[in-house]
Amino acid sequence: MLTALNWPGFADLTLAGLLFLCAAAFLAGAVDAIVGGGGLIQLPAMLMLLPGGEVVYSLATSKVAAIAGTSAAARTYAKRTPMDWRAALPMALVALIGSLGGAALADALPSSVLNVVVMVALIVVGIYTWRKPDLGSVDAPRFARRIQLALMLLGGAAIGFWDGIAGPGTGSFLVFWLVSLVGFAFVTASATAKVVNVATNLGALFFFIPAGKVLWGLGLVMAASNIAGSVLGATLAAGRGSAFVRRVFLTVVVGLVFSLGWKIALSG
Hints:
By secondary structure, the chain is mainly α. The protein has helices at residues 15-35, 39-49, 55-80, 85-104, 111-131, 145-165, 170-182, 186-208, 216-240, 242-267.
């Protein structure tokens, strides 16, 4: 059996455990860059392997890896996909504020209740998207510019708050919001969601870093893996188009529903 590394910031992981978490971070980065939902892979892997401690340490450390990956994905999308920066940046700002508030309440709210609410929401999202095969195939704004911006700000604040609490599916909810309500194509929505996701991760870290909840050694190593996966995922999404992103979106939503259902069953 491999002995623990005993390096500062690594929570006494074995080398095999560290390699497993790096692989999980790479895969999470790829999935997250395409359509969100990478937390379905990365956070459970950390919770499984980090010995002892509170869940909040895994959550905080995963944000370090996630912000590195989402930043790399956003940069890759910006090179390949036109983005409405005048709308994306204000949405990112309110999402950052929402995420900061959510992180502050991460330990105070009953996660079991929130998991049920989110699972139901994901089922509705999945069925709605599946029943509308043309949804998100092209950019088709549904409202005047002012209303569109208001919807993006509302979605950014609400979903950012959920991300701060540690809710799964943040990226998927952002993509669905931008596709179904704002009228973006899936690729444009994924690109915009990455910019917003950078802000939600940053907002959470504004709380977690001063609170001393980040395992920096582990977080930085996983960040490198997450970046590699994110660049790959964003390149695939931008190259293959909205139909590919839609298929991945539905797959991730199904995975999130089963993951949350399993958590709810175990907690019951």
